[in-house]
Amino acid sequence: MMVDVLLILMIVGAIIALEVKNLLSAVVAVGTVGLVLSLVFLLLQAPDVAITQLAVEIITVILLIRATLRLELPQSPLISRPVGILTGLCFAAVFLILLVPGLKELPAFGSPSVRVAQTYLDQGLADTGAANLVASVLLDYRAYDTLGEATVLFAAVIGVLTVLRAQGRKGKQVSKGAEHGKE
Description:
By secondary structure, the protein is mostly helical. The longest helix is centred in the C-terminal third of the chain and has 40 residues. The protein is flat and about 65 Å long. The protein folds into two domains: 113 residues, no CATH class; 69 residues, no CATH class. It is built from seven helices and no strands.
């Protein structure tokens, strides 16, 4: 039930991101969709995927906001600012109203919500032959999941480094051009 509501919220956020005229508002809407997706992963009992999604979403939103703020955006008229503030407050209120029941559905801290861990502990050595059960879970039982998470994190790091390196090269080209202009 709660996952369905969150999926509807994600669809609404995606539509808002497509339809809004202000780029910064679109970036915020996309970030909200990613945050809600990480909550969906958490409710579906995939905390590792939720953490990965959250980390990648934070990096992506920071990069998009940085790129958006560099553009010269036209100032909106004063009449639309109260409407924007009211819309933001309504969105925050709806988000909080939906968040509270979702957080109440989470199991109590320390209580096991997934029973497969006991199977790993009981049969891990016999199934995998690895004395280190953490490594056997990551590399045998959940190898594809671990590979996917590592790929996502690697792609995010490469993307950040590419953006930062391109900006560094632009700065060096400007300084070289200034030096040649002095001669």
